[in-house]
Amino acid sequence: MSDPVVSEAAASEAAGFVELAERIAREAGEMLLAKRPARPEVLATKSSPTDVVTALDKASEELIRTRIRQARPDDAILGEEGGSTGDGRVRWIVDPIDGTVNFLYGLPEWSVSIAVEVDGQVVAGVVNVVPRGEVFTAARGGGAWLAGERLRCNTGVPLEQALIATGFGYGPGRRAVQAEVLAQVVPRVRDIRRGGSAASDLCSVAAGRVDGYYERGPQDWDYAAGGLIAAEAGARFGGLHGKPANPGLTLCAAPGLFEELHALLAPLNPERDS
Ligand code: IPD
Ligand code: CA
Known about the structure:
globular, alpha+beta, binds D-MYO-inositol-1-phosphate, binds calcium ion, five-stranded mixed beta sheet, 15 strands, 25% strand
């Protein structure tokens, strides 16, 4: 949510981070579009045989890291492919391609996600949903934006009318529980969407294209930028039982729907794997 207590200095620092992150996310998106072959090749698998990485995930992260280092050599960086480097009060959180499976198959729902954290708080977020040419941005306290329009999430939607986005992990044990939980959610909501990019799902909450989102498993790089964008569009973004968003469970929806979704999910013990 827009936070009026953000000082002028902090707001201007955050705006500077958004500007730089946007420039870098656009450049990475252009590179990915230009270099994406008709059938990208799987370079390696990670947590399971279906959790893939392509050469372009690596190239995108390398490009992003290079640009951050050129502009801000002292900042720390956490990237999905390259892990953590550096140390300091400013940390960049990067997903070079969120929705790699969509990227592999040529589905138009993958994104470049870049967030900037200062003293542990995300202050800037940019999600470039490249195939759609949509770049979502937010600075803490400055609202969420898409193509010059301020975004507002949907409000006043009861659970049974809500369109809810979710996603699934890559391990069978996690998926078995996710399917079990989903079976309890589907009869209680309007419908479910599985877009394939958590960063983009959160931007969809911000833009009112879905009413809410929940997922077990996404990591910082999946949700740091999108979470700020959704929050700045008026949504609540967090975990279960008052925790901040975390890989155990990440939830996002307007106040009211957030609590209804929470009340539905919490008793299902969705933070486990089988
Ligand atoms: C994945 C996507 C997907 C979500 C998974 C993520 P990746 O990221 O965000 O929508 O369901 O939890 O791991 O692997 O494509 O970068
Ligand atoms: Ca990701």
